[in-house]
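Page header: ASSEMBLY MODEL / three components / 990 residues total.
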Amino acid sequence: MAAIVAIALLVKFLKSDGPWSDSFYWALKLAFAVIIFRVFIGVIIGVPVPGHTLFTIPNIPLPDWMAGITLGGPVTWERVSSTVIESLNIASIIAIFGAATSLTNTRAVLRSMPPIFYEVGMVLVIATTLTPQLVGNLKRIRIAQKIRGISNSKFLSWRQIAMPLLEDSLARALDLAAAMDSRGYGYSRKRSKYRPQKFTFKDALLISTGFIFLAVSL
Amino acid sequence: MKTADIFRFNGFRIIALTLTSIVSAAGFFWPFFSSSNKSSLIFWIATPLALLLLLALIGQAKLDAKSLALLGVLSALIAALRPLGAGAAGIEPMWFLLILGAYVFGPSFGFLLGVQSMLLSAFLTGGFGPWLPYQIFAAGWLGLLAGLTPKIKRIEIPLLVIVGLIASEIFGVLMDLQFWPWAIGPKTQLSYLPGAAIGENLNRFFSYHVASSMAWNVPRAIFTALLIALVGPGVLSALKRASRKANFVSEIKFI
Amino acid sequence: MIKFQNVSLIYPTSQKTILDGLNFEIGEGEFVLLIGETGIGKSSVLRLINGLVPHHTGGILAGNVEVGGLSTRDVRPGELAELIGIVGQNPVNGFVTDIVEDELAFSMESLNLSNEVMRKRIEEVLDLLSLASIRDRKIATLSGGEQQRVAIAAAMVLHPKILVLDEPTSALDPVAAEEVLAILQRLVHDLGITVIIAEHRLERVIGYVDTVIEISADGNTRIGKPDEILKESEIAPPLVKLARALKLPKVSLSVRDLRKDTENIRNTGNEVAQRHEVLGRELIKLDSVSVHYGDKIALQKLDLSIRGGEIVALMGRNGAGKSSLIKSLLDVVEYKGTIKKHITKIGYIPQDANDLLYHQSVKNECDQTDKDHSLTVGTTYKLLNKLVPNIKQDIHPRDLSEGQRLALVLAIVLAPNPELLILDEPTRGLDYSAKELLIKELIARSEKGAAVLIATHDVELVAELASRIVILADGDLVADGPTMDVLLASPAFAPQVTKVMSPRKWLTVSDVLKAIE
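Prediction written out in full:
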């Protein structure tokens, strides 16, 4: 619990811009959802733990082939609380991941990948460059197809918009490949880097705190 | 002389792929074989390491500009499709495009396409978590599988629909396997029981899987199959045309 | 610098010989223009220069292509990257990253240039192409002209001696086109770079180039000075067509020169009646229509009325509000004010005609249109055949030539007989013959009572086609009147014939011919 609070404070101070900055909050929500889900499951089909009963859910026996699981039974405080505590472990790991992503700069990561991952990173770079263009294309195509006459069936209208988008994107890929070849991509095995990324103090702090929390929660 | 071929795993890398896949598979299936509580965490570290190793080795292969550009474009489309279902149970349009793309361009390309699409999707949404390397491997294997589908023209679409159904189910099993040890907590009747006999755990997992299937797998399988059946022919045609226009392994002759 | 010796080319998947026995030589520091009908192989010639054909595309090449002393038989495109820079038809498609500066660095990174060299060259190139102020911008947010300059910069950063561009000005408005052409000229004259471009719209380009290479349908190439080649070529800008029609001894390439030779005609020619249209009922009326995107006002309280039989040209700088106007007519954007429509069908041809197509064959597209509008089966295909005959039914729409695709899109949009037809920049990338097809069909439609609204920068098109011009600037209507009046009122806007013949009121070559009968 303390870990999560500490992380939350850290994130608040060091939050970076970019599409990931909200991921900590999403991660928190997810972690919370996991806890709730586990409590729910634990209560419904958990092995009963004796203790103070809060309320009782009626028993619903399931067919035999479902391994004789019974739904329902008394909901005890101990059950709920023990589930919550057990779940904190997982929740904090999720939170750590979320914090880590919140605090990293997408662009910096993509651009500064070690050369060994160059091709994989390159695909990501191209894809991220393309994504906003895809959205623009989609809007244009929608307008054109709407005037041409969009089909009533939901699936078929999807096709009317998806097909030109797909064809356009594939044509782009081929143009891009020709441009890349012309500009010397793949000519030399070695590549230089225009913006070499330096590890800042902030980065080091981040990584070490991450590991500490990880170790603690184990 | 010929122009470059589309990306294919060659001998050395096929071995690497097999080995890293075995590690990752162990990461999925350990609940049936290991009784250690720490297994979950061990594999949460081992699987991503295996993935990184595999990606590094791919990096050593020359990825031709055409394969790269196609990967970039298709993975962008697939990743963009992914959130379209708005999280509605199992409505994931990404699979149908992954399967068709892998079918046209080959198993190696398909594997890489699955990997890149998942990775990109995580990048775009910031959805990093311990589950990610598992999803990446799973998507990669599905791409590989789809790429291995035999090309029989007359029953192409029905065959792909079947592949779609199988792939959805496999993905469902893998995801459930991956969530199983930690998502529902250790003391329920459906939970993984460390140290129990394989039979007992299999039984429990099966029940868990059936329960989750109703919510996720069945809709996903049906939706994917529908998309392949309805939109498949057009998409396939476009992909094949692109493959032709790319002039892979085309003759270069000087006279 | 560049030598084509007896070059013939066949692509691996086709039987047709694309080029046959091409022979020409380009010296260092020349500014060369490559002309020819669409589909003749201009793009192939450009790609032969840096070896993309056949190394990247596959193909059987006879003869020899020698560049800077190296033959493309022995060298791959990547190895020529520091000698030849190439910019394709859609420069945006060739960009790998999303930020200007990173894009410039990409080529150098691929060639493993050192950091100091990269930094120095990036600064140089940013200044050379006036991009310093936008170095950090996202490429997707730049204007067409800026994007074209970034593409040129990304090529120039490797210090090539040759620069090849495929239709660099076809997608640009006149101001941006001028900028790009001026830059290219500066590269040739100040830096001694050899520049080769392929273009359809010759009016803008012809004044800048030293040499013209024409590839004709029978496989012959002619190479020579612009006035020599254009004197007899099928493809010619209005100035040249005018000189030829008037049977002048020499062909002038500038307005000034042609004015000197036509003084007599200016003084003695008759008045020519403007194209008279029978105007029908009012089809659409806009009343005080405004469109905003957030804080930005795209269209301010616009009043406009369009009647049947009119062909209205919608002109103005990029960002003046043309597309907002069109979108409000199409009802795809929110607007204030009222738009009264007295029509049932609107046809719309977007800037990128491919947006409309979604089937895999011409036949399916036509059949779909028949189905959508409850027409007799075959109507659309028949119309297509009338426009451009002999298009095979099973061709994939994207494999059609520009002219054929235009015909297909026209057939699809016109088959249901819309009362109002809206076109957005239809003449991009079209050669003169496709343009004529468009003009003929649109005039025919307007004579039957339909109205046409065409957003365009192409003044020559407007001169041939439009009866009325509406000009927008910053969301306001600044001009709305008959073509002749509007074009004459602004000398910069005028078509070439009018500039030559001013102050006489003649817009096209045929006007002038009629005047001297």
